[in-house]
Amino acid sequence: MSSQPSDYSNKPCCAFGNDYGDYTGIDATEGVAIPVWSDKRDPGDGEAYAFVEADPTTRILTVAKTGSGSGTVTGPGISCGGDCSEPYANGASVTLAATPAANSAFAGWSGACSGIGSCVVTMSAARFVIATFGLLPSATRILTVAKAGSGSGTVTGPGISCGSDCSEGYADGTTVALTATRAANSIFAGWSGACSGTGSCVVTMSADTFATATFRLRPALRVSDAVVTEGNFGSKLAVFKVRLNRVSGKRITVRYATANGTALAPPDYAAKSGRLTFLPGQVLKKVSVIVKGDRRNEANETFFLRLSRAVNAAIVDARGKGRIVDND
């Protein structure tokens, strides 16, 4: 066996040898085989090796993560993440904490710890700890619909009929399309909240979301009755008044036509039909119907003026009654 050189005289070592085979099976916590020097003066000697003891005051803590989710494990000198091991003094008490990501849950420890609380290990030997993170189910986002305004209508979408069912839960990231349908006497004025405009409301459910549909009453048309006293000759006018209940900013049109009752056209009155146009700001139009006089002694008679096919307005009273009073 070769003698130990003087520059290694202060190295802690427990044995010397000429080959690796003399020292196989030595555990890393007990000692490591390292080449110390090579002495070639004696052809019978090989390389000399010293076994240097591992530092008996240091123990290694190693952390691993597993599972479908994600998260971090932290402790003194550890942020795993990226730094998942650390040496500690023999006998040290080390506390590890597991923090799940937003879409995950911490399922528990294995290895040197168990349970779901903090992991506290005593470093009397090398330790290995595993943190398991599970993926949470997709988050549920709530879509709430409200209706506003003087009019009425419904809002529909997947799982929503508002009406009565005005909220629904959706998986995070779901795209939802809402449709507003006005009632006959109303107009859809538009969206507010998560949407704007008057088309479909399309929202991506990355958070709880609120949308409001505004319906306004359409301008309303009604026609009055008319009374005229029949003369003995010539003609008179029965005047029907067609009114809007409020000023509108839109051009409004409505069709009208007379219809027989007990009075007949043409002997008693002249049939008439046409279209009325209300420009923005106008609220009153008149329809005059010619009533013919005669000398017959007869009962009072009636005929009608009917409204139809309104554009940009609702018809709330579609029939006016014309009353011809006999004067004979």
Question: Care to give the gist of this entry?
Answer:
With 328 residues, this protein is mostly beta strands. It is built from no helices and 28 strands.
Structure description:
The protein is mostly beta strands and 328 residues long. Helices cover 0% and strands 56% of the residues. A 5-stranded mixed sheet has the order 21-28-26-23-24, with no helix packed on it. A 4-stranded mixed sheet has the order 7-4-11-9, with no helix packed on it. A 4-stranded antiparallel sheet has the order 6-5-8-10, with no helix packed on it. The termini are far apart. The relative contact order is 0.10. The N terminus is likely disordered.
Overall number of strands? 28
Taken from the alpha-carbon principal axes, the silhouette is rod-shaped
Strand percentage lies at: over 45%
Q: Please identify the oligomeric state.
A: single chain
- Strand arrangement, major sheet: 21-28-26-23-24
Number of helices: 0
User: What is the average per-residue confidence, as pLDDT, rounded to a whole number?
Assistant: 85
Radius of gyration: 48 Å
Helix content: under 10%
Order of helices and strands: EEEEEEEEEEEEEEEEEEEEEEEEEEEE
